[in-house]
Specification:
Chain lengths: ~150, ~120
Amino acid sequence: MTGIKGDPLARSFRGMRIAASALDAERSRIDVIAKNVANARTTKMPGTGLPYRREVASFRPVLGEAFNGGIDFVGIRVDEVVTDQSAFEEVYDPQHPDADARGVVLYPNVNTMQEMADLVTAVRSYEANLSVIETTERMADRALRLAE
Amino acid sequence: MSLLQSPGHALLQRLMSATTQRRDVIAMNVASQNMPGYRRRDVEFERLLVDAMDRGTPPERLMEIEPEVQIDWASEARADGNSVDAERESAMLRENRIRFELYAAILSGRSNLVRQALTSDR
């Protein structure tokens, strides 16, 4: 990712670029939550034959070349998407095609309520970063109006 | 040298045309955001100018610097090889607009000086 390096004017847009990277990261987090919610009842994954495992996205900072030649924080990005290794939910349902010999069906370790709460957090973060971009833009506009 | 023919005036015009070109490049990035293998592009001009100024290039020689459309290899690509991120392009577009307005404001400030000089006898 290109950093803040560039002309002196690029420094004024630093906040905007950081917030834009956060928008992208939060959108990826929302995608992961969507995948979890969609797979909340997936009892058999192709390949493993096991139920779907919940996924969690983790972020990490992106460092770039600072204007003065040092290292500076330039944004965030999704570091990795890890699978939640907690136990599957066991439900007794002998009629289910994926029931084992005991009549127990393993369901994914996805808690839809928790996913909805995470979704709200992600959307709020997205909105917060969006308002950082809009505020930076308004500030620059106000500064420009001084020249009129 | 007259104010309207000074290197500064021409430089501002070139900066404005570079931002216009950058707007088109951003538009192309956004339009190609679902094209597999596409790498986002950017217009390098301001940084080339700053680098040249830091090296002590005289103002007349700055005219030889042209805006360059460069492929941004530093941005990471998605699984399909595309490196366009809509949010980032949107922020770049806003940044570019502010740059354009800044250059336009400086240019119109300079033009106002000339206008004042022309109308000072009235």
